[in-house]
Amino acid sequence: AQSVTQLDSQVPVFEEAPVELRCNYSSSVSVYLFWYVQYPNQGLQLLLKYLSGSTLVKGINGFEAEFNKSQTSFHLRKPSVHISDTAEYFCAVTLIQGAQKLVFGQGTRLTINP
Amino acid sequence: NAGVMQNPRHLVRRRGQEARLRCSPMKGHSHVYWYRQLPEEGLKFMVYLQKENIIDESGMPKERFSAEFPKEGPSILRIQQVVRGDSAAYFCASSPRGETTDTQYFGPGTRLTVL
């Protein structure tokens, strides 16, 4: 079975500061990795995904993530955050082969302070 | 270009009543997934359907919960005899081909409150 651990439940940062949201996963087989963002009272929106190739993936809104197979990590980063980045962020995996169901982490609430 | 539609957005039920949640996938998508988000938790997979078929229901509670995706019309998640523990946000997602490389597009969710 797969599992995803987001190491920080809440991350407060100041506007224009850099941020890193951590994600580790556990799986005995290869997986694809995703980051989704959930704004208050809305559904989830895909930020970026890693399928293959370059381990540094660029997504929307200036976010990027790096896949590290040896550390089974997929941390999300942004060099300078804005107030509008305040949201819940979810890391997720799915099996490369098999049913396309996403396994999510518990989420990290990012709060941007002015 | 409408996205995934869910209704109602908010649903209040008393214990013992039935809840019906509807999901219309994005145009051209024939694969639907239901997830449940309990308070302060991540999303948990419930069921994966194609038109007229349940493909994977490994995340569905064994009793009171059922799902369908008929040939015509939206997908329905049905919860019979609701209990307080069913209070959660229920999200529907759709994808075009059901392949693991596909992006799943999520609807805004239905927030169920059981009194």
Notes on the structure:
- The complex is a heterodimer of chains A (114) and B (115).
- By secondary structure, chain A is mostly beta strands.
- Helices cover 0% and strands 53% of the residues of chain A.
- In chain A, β8 (64-68) and β9 (73-78) form a beta hairpin.
- The radius of gyration of chain A is 14 Å and the shape is globular.
- Chain B is built from no helices and eleven strands.
- Chain B has strands at residues 5-7, 10-13, 19-24, 31-37, 43-50, 53-56, 65-68, 75-79, 88-95, 105-106, 110-114.
- Chain B is globular.
- The mean pLDDT of chain B is 93.
- The A-B interface holds A 4, 6, 32, 36, 41-46, 49, 51, 90, 94-107 and B 4, 6, 31, 33, 35, 41-45, 48, 55-56, 58-59, 91, 93, 95, 98-109.
Individual helix count of chain A: 0
Q: What fraction of the residues of chain A are assigned to beta strands by DSSP?
A: over 45%
- Mean pLDDT figure of chain A: 93
Overall pLDDT of chain B:
93
Q: What is the ordering of alpha helices and beta strands of chain A?
A: EEEEEEEEEEEE
Helix content, binned percent of chain B? under 10%
Count of individual beta strands of chain A: 12
* Terminal Cα span of chain A: 41 Å
Shape of chain B: globular
Strand-pairing-aware structural class of chain B = mainly beta
Radius of gyration of chain A: 14 Å
Unreliable stretches of chain A (pLDDT < 50, length at least 5) are: none
How can the largest sheet of chain B be summarized?
7 strands, mixed
